[in-house]
Design goal:
The protein is mainly alpha-helical. It folds into two domains: 187 residues, Fumarase/aspartase (N-terminal domain) (Fumarase C, Chain B, domain 1); 294 residues, Fumarase C, Chain A, domain 2. The longest helix has 31 residues. Helix content is 56%, strand content 6%. Strands 4-6-7 form a three-stranded antiparallel beta sheet. A two-stranded parallel sheet has the order 1-2.
């Protein structure tokens, strides 16, 4: 079914990615969530009518929390909050990131702890379903009190203000809303604060980074298996007994994937009996231990993001059953920032081991009979020499990105916000890091496929041969030197598509 129903409690990361990447998927609010929201709103209205001070509703914000706001100025308070906080800078976030954060913000409000009207979420989803995406600059959040600036740019769009993307072009959001017959929002008490206070920009970009990284680690197994075959390596280190003796879950999964990909290899049989080498280099032998470590890191990140995607992260929170509105710190993105820093570290190390395999494929001192740089005429031709240089450049950038953002707290808001997570920075780094890993893996796939050509007519394992055929659908064998940039771009697209990531699972079925 091409529809996602938000209830604030059960949103999957796969649905976040699906809505982010596919404009045809419709999103709606569940009836149960609407009822919770209505109860929360009713309680806020009753509380405001009593005259009791409520942070951000009848008072100012941050350092100005002790300033009382007159009833006739409370609408201005919410509107001014959105306008003043829409202060991000830099290039606009891509469409998928904006859609992810819009969906996640709607889901957070759907929990019914934010005190806003059902209309607010319905309008947010109407923009999402219509394909109107407010322009959200990529810089402007320190991850506490949440992603204020990015979310404020989205809220500004709900007011019919600011710029946005629609049908691939930038327009005035108000103009597009008018053309689509959508009435802009007039904010009431608490609603501006509810819209901008939360971790959804960090989480949304993080979800997209994670799901791409999960595909990439599967491709790392495929590329590694292809490299092993091209280098006449042995699959013995992937035996089940070894990994049962050290039963880390990720390690066991990686070893299982490699066994599946390498099964029934004629290349292996050709050197099994007369190979004088005792063991392979670590970049081949230790693939389960290194790839598996990344798998477990990504598993931890997934657990954090699954909770965060279904959490109320604004402030204050409304609990109608307890008859309280309480200020807290759920907007603080430290746990998400740390998880995304870990993701970047794991991704960087996958690129490190992939680049080492590329080096072994191209270095005639290490490649067991393969020509230098896999060129047909080494010396006259350079083959893949500069492809490895490119991979090293990518790796250098990845190592810089692997520095954690989550330890770089800088005090903001007149020392009221004296510890911040830098979550959005961690998310930006994670998303970029995954893209760089995909390019390194594309380089390994290109080199490994060429290496296998030199082992013909022998065939590799079942999964290796499937992968080789899929690589060859987008990149041909290197017969003579040619510009490799287009080949690497095509293979990067193949890595991102998930087409290679599914091979081991397809065989196991």
């Amino acid at each position: 079914m091409n529809e996602v129903v938000l209830d604030g409690l059960t949103l999957s990361l796969e649905d976040v990615e699906r809505v982010a990447s596919d404009l045809s998927v419709r999103v709606r609010l569940s009836d149960e969530a609407a009822e919770r929201m209505a109860a929360s709103r009713k309680f806020i209205v009753e509380l405001v009518d009593t005259g009791e001070p409520v942070y951000g509703v009848t008072t100012g914000f941050g350092r100005l929390a002790d300033v009382a706001i007159a009833p006739d100025e409370r609408g201005d308070l919410q509107r001014n909050l959105v306008r003043s906080h829409a202060s991000g800078v830099g290039l606009p976030m891509d469409r998928a990131s904006v859609r992810a954060l819009m969906m996640l913000r709607a889901n957070a409000l759907a929990r019914g702890n934010s005190g806003c009207r059902v209309l607010v979420v319905e309008l947010l989803l109407e923009l999402l379903n219509t394909g109107i995406h407010p322009r959200v600059p990529e810089f402007g959040s320190v991850g506490a009190s949440g992603d204020l600036a990015p979310l404020a740019h989205v809220a500004l769009g709900l007011l019919g203000e600011g710029l946005g993307e629609y049908s691939g072009e930038e327009h005035s959001v108000g103009t597009v809303m008018e053309a689509e017959g959508i009435t802009p929002l007039t904010l009431e008490s608490k609603e501006g604060l509810a819209l901008i206070n939360g971790t959804q920009a960090t989480t949304g970009i993080g979800v997209l980074a994670l799901t791409a990284a999960e595909r990439a680690v599967e491709v790392a197994e495929v590329a590694g298996a292809m490299s092993l075959e091209a280098l006449l390596g042995t699959p013995e280190p992937f035996r089940k007994e070894i990994h049962e003796a050290r039963p880390h879950r990720g390690q066991g999964i990686s070893a299982s994937r490699l066994r599946t990909l390498l099964a029934d290899s004629d290349i292996r049989k050709s050197h099994q009996e007369n190979d004088p080498r005792v063991q392979d280099a670590y970049s081949l032998r230790c693939m389960p231990q290194v790839h598996g470590a990344a798998r477990q890191a990504l598993g931890y990140v997934r657990g954090v993001l699954e909770v965060e995607a279904n959490s109320a992260t604004d402030n204050p929170l409304v609990f109608p059953s307890a008859k309280v509105v309480v200020s807290g710190g759920n907007f603080h993105a430290q746990i998400v920032a740390q998880a995304l820093d870990l993701l970047t570290i794991a991704v960087a190390d996958l690129a490190v081991i992939s680049e080492r395999r590329i080096e072994r494929l191209l270095n005639p001192d290490l490649s067991v009979g393969l020509p230098a740089f896999l060129a047909k005429r080494p010396g006259v031709e350079s083959g893949f020499m500069i492809a490895q240089v490119t991979a090293v450049d990518l790796l250098g950038e990845l190592r810089i990105l692997a520095h954690p953002a989550s330890v770089d707290s800088v005090t903001t808001s007149a020392n009221q916000e004296d510890h911040v997570s830098m979550g959005l920075g961690a998310a930006r780094k994670a998303r970029r890091a995954v893209g760089l890993l995909e390019q390194v893996l594309a380089t390994e796939l290109m080199c490994a496929a060429q290496g296998i050509e030199y082992r013909r007519p022998l065939t590799g394992g079942r999964g290796v041969e499937i992968a080789h055929k899929r690589v060859r659908t987008v990149v041909s064998e290197l017969e003579h030197d040619r510009p490799l940039g287009p080949d690497l771009d095509a293979l990067t697209d193949l890595v991102r598509s998930g087409n290679l990531a599914r091979i081991a699972l397809e065989i196991d079925r």
